[in-house]
Design a protein that fits this description.
binds S-adenosylmethionine; SET_dom_sf; protein-lysine N-methyltransferase activity; seven-stranded mixed beta sheet; about 10% strand; about 375 residues; alpha+beta
């Protein structure tokens, strides 16, 4: 029996109910879930009972007691996985991605020269994630010094890329972003921005078809509405289509900021993270920094206090933003694409992912420039 068939037999024995789907190898996406017959919308295709979860409650107290009380659920799950040598875990572990998959997709595993060519905002996010990983490893290594670094790294990345939100009386004591669990078989669904519904009941996790599917079609779930910088950093892939994608212009903004302007922004917790997505909450940060760069501190304050009236300042800010976006294209994006192309460091697939991201950024900026120009023409008419 192959690993995937073995997994199904094992999962069924754990009480997992699998209907009309099967895991299969999908080019470019590792393993995914395919329909084995035509499926109607609202059909339940998977149910995973609570007993089959790898979650806070299933972690042996012998592990929890040896790790510090501040240990996150993510780090506890990673510790549990790194230490789990039981035969019961083998069928699930056998279908997990390999370390070589993480080395390609996860920027955490890239050589520094490639990490340095990531856009500034995700580069900063990566530094934070690396610090979290390092802290988790230090705690784990003190408690379990016999487990090698590579084995823990692998377990940590498995947890990082395939957990689900899991609410229980125990996990409610943790911050919401850390209420995590591993759900065998459900963790084989790949991401698309529209996908099957996932919900939890006392019977466990249910996955329900969101629409009709034809036999052989891949079924997806949505991991959430993240930008592709986030998808790359946290999950190690870049979707081709992503309506929630956004671009941060920190790379072009930061070199323009003087020390006193940085201090002004820092004072108000507005230093860094400048997205272009107008629908995002953080777009307010972008509007604020553009006012500071193109106007006076007084105007900047008026904007922050909600005292800006009329269109005059906004029109000037839009014109300034257009200039900034042109600069972003010529001074940052084009340069980065050339640098990635010239670089011989790392694996070809790693460089291809990085180049894909900068190309997407180039396309988004070009679309933005087009829509701002159109808006300006409309205002003039
Ligand atoms: C929850 S797992 C899904 C199953 C996974 N493909 C596997 O082989 O085990 C999440 C991982 O799947 C991959 N993935 C998910 N959605 C993808 C997509 N739309 N395109 C490419 N890779 C995807 C990424 O590597 C991600 O870290």
């Amino acid at each position: 029996m192959g690993h995937l068939q073995n997994l199904i037999a094992w999962a069924t024995a754990q009480g997992v109910v699998i209907d009309a789907i099967q895991p299969s190898k999908i080019p470019g996406r590792g393993t995914g879930i395919l329909a084995t017959r035509n499926i109607k919308a609202e059909e339940e295709v998977l149910k995973v009972p609570p007993g089959a979860l790898r979650c806070l409650e299933s972690i042996p107290s012998s592990i929890r007691e040896r790790l510090p009380s501040h240990t996150t659920i993510q780090a506890l799950l990673a510790a549990d996985l790194a230490l789990d040598k039981s035969a019961n875990a083998v069928p699930w572990k056998a279908v997990l991605p390999k370390m070589s998959d993480f080395e390609v997709g996860m920027p955490m595993m890239w050589p520094k020269a490639l990490k340095d060519l990531l856009p500034l905002e995700p580069r900063n996010l990566l530094l934070k994630r690396e610090k979290t990983f390092q802290d988790d490893w230090n705690d784990f290594n003190k408690a379990f010094p016999d487990v090698p670094y590579d084995e823990y790294t692998y377990a940590w990345l498995v947890v990082n890329t395939r957990t689900f939100y899991n609410e229980s009386p125990e996990t409610l004591k943790y911050p919401w972003e850390d209420r995590l669990a591993l759900i065998p078989v459900a963790d084989l669904f790949n991401h698309a921005d529209a996908g099957c519904k996932v919900y939890y009941s006392p019977e466990g996790y249910h996955i329900i078809a969101d629409r009709d599917y034809e036999k052989g079609e891949e079924l997806f779930i949505s991991y959430s509405t993240h930008s592709n910088d986030y998808n790359l950093l946290e999950y190690g892939f870049i979707p081709d289509e992503n309506p929630s994608d956004d671009v941060y212009i920190d790379d072009v903004i930061f070199p323009k900021l003087g020390e006193s302007q940085k201090a002004e922004l820092e004072k108000r917790d507005l230093l860094g993270e400048y997205p272009l997505g107008e629908a995002t909450e953080e777009f307010h940060r972008t509007q604020a920094v553009l006012r500071l760069l193109s106007g006076t501190v007084k105007e900047f304050d008026r904007f922050l206090n909600g005292e800006e009236h009329g269109q005059v300042v906004q029109n000037r800010v839009d014109t300034y933003l257009l200039k900034v976006l042109d600069e972003f294209l010529s001074d940052v994006v084009t340069k980065r694409l050339q640098e990635v192309d010239a670089l011989k460091v790392g694996l070809e697939e790693q460089r291809a992912l990085l180049a894909k991201r900068w190309t997407q950024i180039e396309e988004i900026i070009n679309r933005k420039i087009g829509s701002y120009r159109e808006r300006q023409m409309d205002t003039l008419e």
